[in-house]
Amino acid sequence: MSRPETHEIDVAVEDPRWEEVAPDLEAFVAEAVEAALAIVPPGGPIEISIVLTDDPAVQELNRTWRGKDKPTNVLSFPNEQPHGGGPRLLGDVVLAYDTLLRESGEQSKPLDHHLAHLVVHGTLHLLGHDHELGDAEADAMEALEVAALRRLGVPDPYGDAAG
Predict the structure, then answer these.
(1) Is residue 129 a known part of a binding site?
(2) CA dist 80 to 83, 88, 125, Å?
(3) Residue 20 — very low, low, confident or very high, per pLDDT cuts 50/70/90?
(4) 51 three-class SS
(5) For residue 148, which of 39, 49, 61, 66 is within the disulfide window of CB 3.0 to 4.6 Å?
(6) Is 153 left (phi over 0), alpha (psi -120 to 50) or beta?
(7) Tens digit of each residue's pLDDT (9 = 90 or more) over 72-118
């Protein structure tokens, strides 16, 4: 009998304002990661780290790793190390509270829906998807995001109702 895949999803809350987004924030974030993994199976157990922080921390990471001296909503850092034993280390996803709060207001979306979307988005990046490679890849990634979000009961963030 085969053992079901178990994923290790580490959630670090560096900004306490995140705690107001969902009653059980860590479970909420883990569920969003699992929804992405259900749509794009990683081929075995994985370990992923989700960091919920603020704009200054994300701005520093964006400046250091991407040469862009501004905050952004989500950054993904895939693990480049070879896979040894145990779960494959997928990488890290870092989200900025201030930017997500602003964007959710501008787009008239609940903050928890926007968080779920960007956790899914970041997880898909770690799984090898990249919307910046062209329109076809962007469309494919959007379709995967919508499918994962549907599993969570989150409306299509790209649809007409998205604002």
Answers:
(1) no
(2) 9, 11, 13
(3) very high
(4) strand
(5) 39
(6) left
(7) 999 999 987 766 777 889 999 999 999 999 999 999 999 999 999 99
What are the contacts of 148-153 at 24+ separation with CB within 8 A? 148/32, 148/35, 148/36, 148/38, 148/39, 148/120, 148/124, 149/35, 149/113, 149/116, 149/117, 149/120, 151/35, 151/38, 151/39, 152/31, 152/32, 152/35, 152/116
Following DSSP, what letter does each residue of 97-135 receive, concatenated?
HHHHHHHHHHTT--HHHHHHHHHHHHHHHHTT--GGG-H
- Give me the mean pLDDT over the 4-29 stretch: 92
125 is in an annotated binding site: yes
Task: Decide if 73 contacts 96 (C-beta within 8 A).
Answer: yes
Q: Is 109 within 8 Å of 97 (Cβ atoms)?
A: no
Domains by residue range for the chain, with CATH: 8-156 (3.40.390.30)
Find out whether 157 and 117 touch, Cβ atoms under 8 Å: yes
